[in-house]
Amino acid sequence: MSPPSTPLDFMTDPAPLDPARLPSLDLLNDTHSFPGPYLFKVIGADDRSFAARVVSLVCEELELEEDPEFTIRRTASGRHLSVTLEPTVPSAQSVVDLYQLLYRLDGLVMVL
């Protein structure tokens, strides 16, 4: 029997970085209205450019003229940070496409 999951499993378990775990188009269409806002929380290394790379990638993929509103929170240890943003996305496929691009970011720990 495997031990119970803990909040820190993402640091050793590669499953959270597996793009096969992306939400299905059917699930996204059943639970969201498109076009509309979609919340992304991206957790990664607290380096000088991680947050900027996240926001830039979202802007580029969605062809936004301005950065969407976002917040940054750093962990107490200072090793990681989370970038939370809620851009307006045109379709469920756009959400999946964004997830696939976010999974490729250097320094990524997890995408929620």
Structural features, described:
The protein has three helices and six strands. With 112 residues, it is an alpha+beta fold. It starts with 24 loop residues before the first helix and ends with a strand.
Keyphrases for this structure?
single chain, 112 residues, alpha+beta, 4-stranded antiparallel β-sheet, two-stranded antiparallel sheet, 6 strands, 28% helix, 22% strand, globular, disordered N terminus
Task: Furnish the topology, listing elements before pairings.
Elements: H1 25-31, E1 36-37, E2 40-45, H2 50-62, E3 70-74, E4 80-85, E5 88-89, H3 92-102, E6 108-111
Helix pairs in contact: 1-3, 2-3
Low-confidence stretches: 1-17
Largest sheet: 4 strands, antiparallel
Number of distinct helices:
3
Question: Helicity level, as a percent range?
Answer: 25-40%
Give the beta-strand count. 6
Please identify the structural class as seen in this structure. Answer: alpha+beta
Question: Strand sequence of the main sheet, in spatial order?
Answer: 3-4-2-6
Question: Alpha-carbon distance between the termini?
Answer: 27 Å
Please state roughly what percent of the residues sit in beta strands, choosing from under 5%, 5-15%, 15-25%, 25-35%, 35-45% or over 45%.
Answer: 15-25%
> Strand-and-helix sequence, N→C?
HEEHEEEHE
Nearest-angstrom radius of gyration? Answer: 15 Å
General form = globular
Overall average pLDDT: 85
Produce a short descriptive summary:
The chain is an alpha+beta fold and 112 residues long. It is built from 3 helices and 6 strands, in the order αββαβββαβ. The chain has helices spanning 25-31, 50-62, 92-102, and strands spanning 36-37, 40-45, 70-74, 80-85, 88-89, 108-111.
